[in-house]
Structures are given as structure tokens and as C-alpha cells.
């Protein structure tokens, strides 16, 4: 998960923020009716039994975090962790457990409705940002666990397992089926490929009524806005040649530099927040040679799909203009500069309105623990359904922590806060699955 | 070798060019007396036998080129090729074959003079510009060989071996010793370290009377002027940050791009030829992060020390201006962009006068084959002795070709032209070693 910007403190404060052109109201997120629904759910004996099970299972939750963190899951290499996670799905009693075509782990919990009807997806992602060979040994100091990936998103994977076991312990019967997912490719160049597959080609794709991603590292986080992004690898090629002998020939690195300068002249709106970054470069092979190739990884993001598309057009036009200007400025005798534009990332923007039942009831679930839900924009698996207009949010993974995406990542597994979040998450999912 | 500029067509034409402030005369390069010396040498039975040996050995010369090209010799990693080359020195009968402290391959051919007297150095360089992992497989099409490094300077290494074998075949006794060298670090960041060592610390350093580098890719090339160069590694640093969250902060990569654009706007004289090249870049760690560092390797050269100094001042001023403009254009809230300018290459300029015996007799050797020596400026191993006032030139490596320093490098191994050059080179070396 990439949490980015706190967008609104909505704990009943009388402020109103316009975000991405969409007004998020300061009116209470949940209505008294929502609060009543959640109170009814929480009062059921089966739910009480499930909530008690969460408590007695806390140590197993910690053990699961340690065990899963220590199975490396580098980008595009989630297989070993997926296999272990599928075994835990089976042990927890889910039906139809499988690893799908792209590597997602799927497991169904049948409800009382007709088979094949609408369902709720609950998910956490298997992959980390860390390359192969990273030391993923977990170090425990009191209530702190330290290891790369221990929070993002192993804490989510472990919380999901705890919820599944609690539902089983309480023998809770929900009207809708719940599909639990451990998905691949959430991070970086994974480009949300696991969840894209689930919604575009997966066998459950036409049944999904609501979507939860368990991937927020704070107690009160409730991500309902998805920042969209487009990422390119731009490769500039030219004839190359001797730095002295061939002086005067076009240089692809000069074209790339001109492109970066041009791009950094593009004006973007502060709201809806829209950004670009010339992030990674390489090229050339020797100090005494005009390079034959130079490349740039470029990141563009926006809270608005329209602004993102506009930025993308402007950026690509500036890239073409830079290439043309280099071919005009120097000799193309041995060949001209050309550019290859490869799209390496495409995360759709989207939003689940603050007034949808999913957001309102989840906020009401948070409120049962005295937590004021804090809406935010982010870039998570939930972007995909948000973009399709399917209600989707990202909720807390139950372990607060810090230094995500760094080797110093840590989480706090204190029972008090963790259990609070697991209870909130359970109630929110039950409400979405139609329990009353 | 970096052959650069044809400076004067000196085949008796009545023109005079002023080069880098040094006038090169159009008077015939060699005198009738020089021509007589060369005729005498060529008429010796031992020399005739050596010249015949060159002819019968042509196919082995080609095989040597293929074999040595296919032993990678990236910058600073010439070891494997050096070992193979030393073995060939031994097989060809040289004495005192060794690999010295910096990696040069040395082999002595004793003359008839007193041990420890003056000697002539003949050299070709082992290193290429190509990084590790470059495919160096040689592709042959008729008389053309294609591969990175096949000409520069493997053709020189192979020609040197052919000359050693021919001297042995003819049992030629020269007054002076000849030290044959396969040297390291001629290219790029090698900064002539092999030949600098030979002249500054090597055990033969006080004995060298004349120096040949076999590293010119044309039949008629005779490099007697050394182009000076300055090379920098410029490292731009900034605070870095999240591509979306920290948008608006200064970007060191943008500063570097602006610097490159600025530098490519600097006007330089065509004569004395003066050039620059933005050659190699790197920086950044993740597509979703503003980089905290970007770096550039920059090459500057001139036939004139004064123009080189002027260019260096202008380039460094543009770099500073680009950094200042980035710090003005974006936020320095978390830190400003700074630049570290590290000098990584400094090749001295120098010249061996057209009227020295070495140049005159070599031109006379060329003339025995009807070739009019073409004096040129370049940046080669010969820069080092030129700068010390020791007569030094760079002569043809016997295989004409093109696209040096590119992956498309090729040479023409047609026997007719190649043998002509090998004969010229042999006679020139014999004259310098005192044979009459």
C-alpha cells in the first residue's frame, strides 16, 4: 500500500474539503441508521463468539506474521508465499481454495444466499517491494517486530486469516458469500496485476458487489480515493560514436535531457493533485563515446483520471518535441535519435463516494470501537474496482508501524490496538456481506 | 585510439595549416637521406625474409584478431586478455615477458647494443570501451570482421604480434633493444594509466628513446599531435522524496538535464578542434521516488590547451547555472540541489615535431609503399611521451574500419592493404631501432 495524503479529518469536525473535484462532506460519515445496523450485528451471539475468538487467537496472529514474513515474496515471485497461504486457507476451512492463473490465492466462504450470487471480496497482498536475497528474518523486541515486509502487507494477510478463523469459530452465516484473496502484484511494477485479473478475467469477476483491501498501516485509515498513475520507460536511441571524432552527431542523452527540462515546465493543478517525476535514468557506456542509448523511468499521478490523461498527452508531446529538436540541432548523418515509449505502469484512478453504504457502514464499524474513520487518497488494490464503479475501500491491517518499503520496516503488535482493529474490520465485512 | 582529425595532407602538396597554434609545414616530411636509409633497410636479406614472413602469416593475423577480440577486456578488467597476450609474446620468442604492476604485458627483443641501453617501445592497448557482458562474438562476412573492439585495438595487438614473428623469422639484429607492450587503460577512465606507469615508474622508464603506438585505423595515419582532454564526473544531489507526496521539491536529475542542455549550447571552434560529450549517466532508485542523486560523465577535448581550458570554464559555469536555476524553480524546503565536480581524466596535450627523425623516417617508411603519411592530432597512449618531450607517434594498426567505440565496429582485413601497412610499420620500427 502507498498511503499518500491525508485528505480529510472527518471526526465530526465542521470542515469541508474539495478533493479531486469531488466534495467530501464534513457531515458525519455514518448515519444513526448505520450505527443501529452495526449495533445489531455486534449483539448477535454468533458475532460475540467470533469477537471472543479473535482475542484468544492473538498469539497465533503474531506467529502467522513471523512465519509469512520469513517466506520471501519479491516482485513477480510470490509463489512460495502463495502456496503457504493457500494451505492456511484450507486449514481455516475455506472452500474452493485455489491459486489462480496469475498467482492469486482464492478461498470462498459460502453464505446463505443462492450459489453464484453477489459476493464480497476481502483481500491482502502477497508481494513485497524487496528484491530476491533480502534478509527477511524477523527480529522481535517486546511488542515490536522488525523485518522488511512485516507490515506491508503480511500484517494484512495475517489479519485476514484471523478473521476467517473467527467467522468459523462463531459459525456466522452471512447472506452473501465472502471471497478471501491473497493477491499478487500490488507493489511497483506489479501494477496491480492480481486484482486487475480478478476483476477482468477471474471466474468471480461478475459477482463482486464490494471490495475490501486490508492494507492500511494506521488504526483509523479508511482509503476511499484511488490515485491513478501512469509510468513510462522512455528509451532514447541514436547512432552513438566517438566523443571527439564524431562530435556534432545527435546525442540521445541530450534529447532525453531536453525532454526532462520540457516536462518540468508543464503546469499541473494542485487540486486535483497531479504530479510527475523523472525518477530513474541510465545510459551510455564509456566517457569517450557519444551514447547510443539513454533511458528514463517517469512517473505521473493524479487524483483525477481526466487530469492524468491530460498530463500524459502533454508529457509525450514534450518528449517528441525534444527528440525533434535534437535531430534538428545536430547531424543525423549516421542516424537520427528516436524514442521508444513503453508503458510500465497503469493504475486507474477512482473513488468510492463517502456517502456509499460501504464507507458509511465501515465508518460505523470503526465507531463501535470509538475510532473516527479518516478518509484518504492512496494507490492500492482498491483502485481497480473504484475505477469500475464497484464500491471499494482499503481498511487497516491491524498492526501500526513505520518505515514501509525500507529495510527498517517495523510494526507494533500490542494486543490492545490490534484487536480493536480486527474487531472493526470483522464488523465492517459482516455489514457489507448483508448480516443484520 | 581516438583518431580524430585529419590535419594536413602532406603528400608534397603546397599547403600549410596552423593547428592549435603550431604550424605544420607543407615541406616534404622526409628528406632524400631518409628515403635512402629506408631503401637500405628494405634491401637487407634479413628484412626481405621478415617481409615475406608477414605475407605468409596473414591468415594467422586474422585468427589472432578473432581470438583476442573474443576475450573480453572491459575497462579495468584487461586481465584475461593480458594473460593470453603474454603467452603469445612468449611463444613468439620475446625475452623477459611479464605482466607489470598495473597489468601491462611487456616483452623484450634484445638488440646488438649494450644491455640496459636506450630502447624503442612498440605498443598496442589491451582494453576496450565496452562494459562486461557485451557480446564480443566476431562475425565474418568476406573480408569484413564485425565485433565490438575488433579494430580498436585488437587489430593493433595482432599486428604487433605479426611484427614480432617477422623479426624472428628474418633473424633481424637491431642495434637497439625493442620493448613490445600490450598496455592497459588507454580508453576512457583508464586515463592512459598503463603508459603513464611505463614512463613514470616502470623499470624501463629511463631507457626509452622513441615510442610507437599501433592504434590508427587508417592506412596513411601518422599521429604526431596529442589532443588533450579533461573528464569530469558530475554528481548532482538533492533531498529526494516520494514522487507524489513530495512533488514540487527540487530534483537533481532535472538540474543535471538542464546542465546538459546548457552545455550543448556552447559554441566551440572547428579549428583547433574542440569538443564535448555528455557520455554516461545514472541515478535514481525507484520509479515512484524523486531521486536523491544523479550523475554524469562528461568528456571535453581540444587540440589546443588554451581552448580546452576555456571550454572547461564555460562548462563548469553552465553546470552551476543549471543547479541555481533548479533551486529557484522548485522548493528547497527539504534541502537544495548541489553538485560535486570530480576530475576523472586529464590527458596532457603534446606534440612530436614533424621534423623529428621519428616522424621523417616513418613517413619515408610509408613512402616505400607509395603511401603519403597524413599527420593528425589524436588522443592516444603517445600523448604521455609527447608531453615528456620523448619522440612518440601513433601508426596504423593495419586494418581499416569504422564505427569504433560502437557495437557496430568493423574492420576490413583484405590482405593487400593490411600487408602494405604491416610492411610500413616494420620498416619504421627498424629505422627507429637504429638499423641501417
Q: Can you walk me through this structure?
A:
The structure is a homodimer of 436-residue chains. Chain A has 436 residues and is of the alpha+beta class. Chain A folds into two domains: 3-9 and 17-226 and 349-432, Aminopeptidase (3-Layer(aba) Sandwich), CATH 3.40.630.10; 228-347, Alpha-Beta Plaits (2-Layer Sandwich). In chain A, 33% of the residues lie in helices and 27% in strands. The first copy, chain A, has eleven helices and 22 strands. In chain A, the strands form six sheets. A six-stranded mixed beta sheet of chain A has the order 4-5-9-6-10-20, with helices on both faces. A four-stranded mixed beta sheet of chain A has the order 1-19-11-18.
Identify the CATH homologous superfamily of the largest domain in chain A. Answer: Zn peptidases
Structural class of chain A: alpha+beta
CATH topology of the largest domain in chain A: Aminopeptidase
Helix content class of chain A: 25-40%
**Contiguous uncertain segments of 5+ residues of chain A:** 2-25
Largest beta-sheet characterization of chain A: 6 strands, mixed
User: What is the CATH-assigned architecture of the largest domain in chain A?
Assistant: 3-Layer(aba) Sandwich
Domain tally of chain A: 2
Taking all Cα atoms into account, the compactness measure Rg of chain A is 24 Å
Top CATH class of the largest domain in chain A: Alpha Beta
Amino acid at each position: 500500500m502507498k498511503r499518500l495524503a491525508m485528505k480529510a479529518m472527518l471526526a465530526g469536525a465542521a470542515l469541508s474539503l474539495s478533493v479531486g473535484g469531488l466534495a467530501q462532506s464534513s457531515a458525519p460519515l455514518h448515519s444513526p441508521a448505520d450505527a443501529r445496523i452495526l449495533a445489531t450485528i455486534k449483539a448477535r451471539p454468533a458475532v460475540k463468539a467470533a469477537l471472543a475468538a479473535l482475542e484468544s487467537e492473538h498469539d497465533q496472529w503474531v506467529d502467522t506474521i513471523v512465519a509469512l514474513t520469513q517466506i520471501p515474496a519479491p516482485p513477480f515471485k510470490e509463489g512460495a508465499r502463495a502456496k503457504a497461504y493457500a494451505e492456511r486457507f484450507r486449514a481455516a476451512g475455506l472452500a474452493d481454495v485455489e491459486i489462480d492463473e496469475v498467482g492469486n490465492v482464492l478461498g470462498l466462504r459460502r453464505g446463505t444466499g443462492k450459489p453464484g450470487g453477489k459476493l464480497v471480496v476481502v483481500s491482502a497482498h502477497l508481494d513485497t517491494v524487496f528484491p530476491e536475497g533480502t534478509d527477511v528474518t524477523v527480529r522481535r523486541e517486546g511488542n515490536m517486530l522488525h523485518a522488511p515486509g512485516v507490515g506491508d502487507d503480511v500484517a494484512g494477510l495475517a489479519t485476514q486469516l484471523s478473521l476467517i478463523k473467527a467467522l468459523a469459530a462463531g459459525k456466522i452465516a452471512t447472506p452473501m458469500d465472502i471471497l478471501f484473496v491473497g493477491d499478487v502484484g500490488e507493489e511497483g511494477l506489479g501494477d496491480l496485476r492480481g486484482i486487475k485479473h480478478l476483476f477482468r478475467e477471474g471466474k468471480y469477476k461478475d459477482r463482486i458487489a464490494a471490495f475490501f483491501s486490508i492494507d492500511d498501516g494506521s488504526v483509523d485509515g479508511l482509503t476511499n480515493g484511488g490515485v491513478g498513475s501512469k509510468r513510462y520507460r522512455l528509451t532514447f536511441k541514436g547512432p552513438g560514436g566517438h566523443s571527439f571524432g564524431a562530435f556534432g552527431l545527435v546525442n540521445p542523452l541530450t534529447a532525453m535531457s531536453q525532454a526532462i527540462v520540457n516536462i518540468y515546465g508543464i503546469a499541473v493543478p494542485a487540486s486535483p493533485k497531479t504530479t510527475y517525476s523523472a525518477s530513474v535514468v541510465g545510459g551510455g557506456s564509456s566517457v569517450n563515446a557519444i551514447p547510443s542509448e539513454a533511458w528514463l523511468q517517469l512517473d505521473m499521478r493524479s487524483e483525477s483520471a481526466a487530469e492524468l490523461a491530460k498530463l500524459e498527452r502533454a508529457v509525450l508531446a514534450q518528449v517528441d518535441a525534444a527528440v525533434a529538436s535534437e535531430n534538428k540541432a545536430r547531424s543525423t548523418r549516421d542516424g537520427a535519435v528516436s524514442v521508444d515509449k513503453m508503458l510500465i505502469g497503469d493504475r486507474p484512478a477512482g473513488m468510492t463516494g463517502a456517502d456509499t453504504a460501504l464507507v458509511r457502514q465501515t465508518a460505523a464499524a470503526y465507531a463501535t470501537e470509538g475510532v473516527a474513520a479518516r478518509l484518504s487518497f492512496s494507490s492500492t488494490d482498491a483502485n481497480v474496482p473504484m475505477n469500475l464503479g464497484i464500491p471499494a475501500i482499503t481498511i487497516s491491517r491491524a498492526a501500526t508501524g513505520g518505515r514501509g518499503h525500507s529495510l527498517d520496516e517495523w510494526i507494533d503488535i500490542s494486543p490492545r490496538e490490534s484487536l480493536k482493529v480486527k474487531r472493526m474490520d470483522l464488523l465492517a465485512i459482516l455489514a457489507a456481506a448483508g448480516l443484520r
